Every structure is written in C-alpha cells, then in structure tokens.
C-alpha cells in the first residue's frame, strides 16, 4: 500500500487556529440569543396569563401588525423584537403571534431547559426517597428550589411550539400527580386549550385533557359544568377544524360523565349544529352516543317508573326519526343521514316494535302494544318512493340519494322480525329495488344482482313462499 503524504501549509494551521475562537464565539452568541429568546417568550406568557390563542406568523406580516397596533386608540406597540431588532413576538388582546423564523431555535432552547429541569426535579425526589424524607417535605423542598415551577414553565414553552413532544406532557403529569390541587388542574385544562388553539388535532393534547378530567372527577362537585364547557370547546374547535376525529372522540368520551339531564340538554343543543353540518359523520355519531346513554340511564330506573320512562324514550326516538327524514328530503344525497337512520330504525325495531330489550317486562309490554308496525313500514316505503325519483337533468346527488335509499331498504329487509316480515314483503318487491339500483348506479349492476340474490334467499322469502 502506498501512502501519499501531502505537505501541510503552515498558513493553514494559523488560519485554522485563528478561526476556532471565532466559531466558538459564534456558537456562544447563538446560545445567548436562543436563551434571550426563551426568556422573552416566557415573560410574555407570565405577563399575560389570559392568552387564549396562539398562532405562527410570517416575519413579513409583523409590519402590518405593528402598524395596526400603532394606529389603535391606545397607541401601544405590541411587537417584541430580539436583540438584533427583528420582530419575533406579537401580543395583544390575549392573542400571541410567534415568528416562524424563531420556531426552531426557540424549540431547541426550551427543550434543553426542560430536560435540565427534569433531571434536577427527579434528582430532588429520588434523594428524598432514598433518605426516607416524607413526601410533604419533598414537595416543599422542590417547590422552594423552584424546580417544579421550572419544569412547568419550560414544558409550557416547549408545548406551545411543538404540541406532540410527549416528554413535556409527561413532565407536567409528573408534577400534577404530586400536587393534585383542583385549581392547578383547572389551569391545566386552560393550558391544553391554548395548545389546541394552534394544534386542534393534537392527540397528545386531547389525551392530556382526558387524563386531567379523570383526576378532577373525584374532587370536583361541579363536574357537570366542566363537562359542558368541554363539549362547547369541542364544538368551537370542530367549527374551524373540519374532519377533526380526535375532537369528536373526546366529546363522545365525555358522555360517560354526563347525567341524564345533561345528555338530554346536549342532544337538544347539538341539533342545530348537526342540521348545518349534515355531511359530518362524527356529529351524528355523537348524537347516537347521547341517545344510547339516555336509554341506558332509563334502563336503570326502578320498575315502577318504567312506564313513564318508556313514553319519554319512545317520543325521543320518534322525534329523531322524523327530524332525520326531514333532513334527508332537504339535503339530497348525504350518506351520513342515511347511516344515522339505520341506527334509529334498528333500535326502533328492537326496543319499541318487538320488545327485544332488557328493560322491565311492563315497559316492554306497553311499548310493543302502543306501536303499530304497519305505520313504521308504510313510512319507510313512502320515504323510499320520494327518494327514488331521478330527474333527467339531475345532478349526481339525486343518483346518490336513490342509491342510499335502495340500499337502506335492502339493509332493512334483514332487520325486520319474522312476525312482520310477511306484511313488509307484501308491500315491497325486490325487483323494484333492483331496477332502481341499476338505474342510479349501473356500473355496479353485478354487485346489486349478488345482493338481491342473497336477500331473496333469506328466511323471510323462504317462509313466504
């Protein structure tokens, strides 16, 4: 092997040696700037604890924000600049804007400070455990040294820049578990709401809220008020963040903490929102969870109250079915409405028409006696007839409406009990459905033929023949 030795220029060594302090000084300057940036950020958060919304702003927009602030009645500039004079923060009317240019250095510095505070906090607690010091002494020691406040302060800074940093959320849980004071837990809900203002689909933020509510549940006498505010928060976020399944999952989870009265109130209050968002499956899923909760609570009533309860639930379901039919006829071709109707019809058949329920016997008997199966069948057939009309110059929505209505009836065939099957099939002929499906969606004719063959071999048709 041959080695090639290249002579080293002495001037290169001198230049390298002279450039090393420059690089070191530049690195120190960057760290100092990042530290100053973090201090400015945390001071703003401390000076305005009522901040309820955070956003990231391009540097070019700070000029407009500054001009707007200068032209206001108070004439106070709300732009905070860094040491080099560039605008980095904007704070006014409890709104906070952060320059996109400083997000990365701010996140790195806040993360570094948080990890250092975490190590110090764990060290204090582990020392107390080893020496056998009581937890109350450990709490006062860590609080006196400001370690807890440092962990909470730096984790707040990190999460307001990056909501999915799980270590920061766990750090806050670690402190909250030792404190478990109601006021602190309520403040934590406000903080996570602030995170959701810029990251409405953050799984960590929603999960943290549920964790906090579980801690509050056993300590707060006004839990229903908190649950109501949580539901309002989800609705507010869902209005500006479409298809937010994490938010709606959180709202459905809240149903387990609702009383019957609150469930009824939520069902009534969410009706207007659902009527304006008929394509939102999540909203109707939430209504289904509320109705199941109400039904479950009624099932737990005493038997002597079952008769009056049955009438109320019967009326509740009837109103929901009528309202759903009105929406179907008003908003053509919305799949979410037809899926919601399947839920309503299935429970109407099982709980009110046939009495297949775990409720007391008196409830089942009176409910099944007071409901006419023929009325239900006629109403569904009339709905099918009104939705199966496809104008020649129609849009695709009418074809979708006809397809949804026909497939709904095919589904309903399998749900009808044997006692009402003969009456139902005397009024409904599957060849009409087959023709309707082939007209509305001819490219799936083979699929419709297979489904129709399956339906015609069902128990109802065998018994009828």
Automatic annotation (TrEMBL):
One Gene Ontology molecular-function label: protein farnesyltransferase activity
PROSITE patterns: PFTA
GO cellular component: CAAX-protein geranylgeranyltransferase complex; protein farnesyltransferase complex
Record's keyword annotation contains Lyase: no
Record-linked InterPro entries: Prenyl_trans_a
Similarity section: Belongs to the protein prenyltransferase subunit alpha family.
Protein name, per record: Uncharacterized protein
Annotated organism of origin: Rosa chinensis (China rose)
């Amino acid at each position: 092997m041959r080695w090639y030795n290249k002579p080293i220029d002495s001037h290169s060594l001198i230049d390298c040696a002279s450039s090393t302090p420059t690089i070191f000084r530049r690195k120190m300057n960057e760290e100092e700037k990042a530290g100053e940036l973090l201090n400015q950020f945390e001071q703003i958060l401390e000076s305005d604890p009522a901040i309820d919304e955070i956003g990231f702003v391009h540097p070019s927009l700070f000029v407009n924000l500054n001009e707007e602030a200068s032209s206001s009645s108070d004439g106070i500039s709300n732009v905070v600049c860094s040491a080099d004079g560039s605008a980095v923060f904007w704070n006014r009317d409890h709104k906070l804007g952060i320059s996109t240019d400083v997000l990365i250095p701010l996140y790195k510095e806040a993360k570094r400070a948080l990890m250092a505070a975490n190590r110090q906090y764990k060290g204090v607690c582990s020392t107390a455990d080893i020496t056998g010091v009581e937890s109350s002494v450990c709490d006062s020691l860590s609080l006196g040294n400001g370690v807890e406040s440092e962990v909470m302060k730096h984790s707040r800074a990190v999460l307001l820049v990056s909501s999915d940093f799980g270590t920061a959320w766990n750090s806050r849980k670690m402190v909250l578990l030792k404190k478990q004071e109601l006021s602190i837990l309520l403040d934590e809900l406000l903080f996570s709401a602030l995170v959701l203002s810029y990251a409405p689909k953050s799984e960590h933020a929603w999960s943290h809220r549920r964790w906090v509510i579980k801690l509050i549940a056993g300590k707060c006498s006004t839990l229903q008020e908190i649950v109501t505010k949580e539901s309002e928060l989800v609705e507010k976020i869902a209005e500006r963040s479409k298809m937010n399944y994490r938010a709606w999952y959180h709202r459905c989870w809240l149903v387990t903490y609702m009383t019957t009265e609150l469930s009824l109130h939520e069902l009534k209050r969410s009706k207007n929102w659902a009527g304006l968002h008929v394509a939102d499956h999540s909203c109707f899923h939430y209504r289904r969870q509320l109705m199941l909760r109400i039904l479950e609570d009624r099932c737990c009533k005493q038997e002597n109250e079952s008769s009056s309860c049955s009438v109320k639930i019967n009326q509740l379901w009837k109103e929901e079915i009528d309202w759903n039919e009105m929406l179907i006829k008003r908003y053509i071709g919305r799949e979410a409405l037809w899926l919601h109707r399947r839920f309503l019809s299935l429970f109407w058949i099982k709980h009110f028409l046939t009495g297949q329920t775990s409720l007391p016997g008196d409830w089942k008997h009176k409910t099944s006696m007071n409901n006419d199966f023929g009325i239900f069948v006629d109403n569904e057939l009339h709905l099918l007839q009104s939705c199966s009309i496809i104008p020649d110059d129609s849009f695709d929505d009418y074809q979708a409406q006809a397809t949804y209505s026909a497939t709904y009836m095919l589904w309903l065939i399998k749900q009808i009990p044997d006692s009402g099957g003969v009456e139902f099939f005397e009024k409904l002929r599957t060849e009409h459905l087959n023709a309707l499906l082939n007209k509305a969606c001819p490219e799936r004719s083979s699929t419709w033929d297979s489904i129709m063959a399956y339906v015609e071999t069902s128990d109802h048709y065998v018994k009828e023949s």
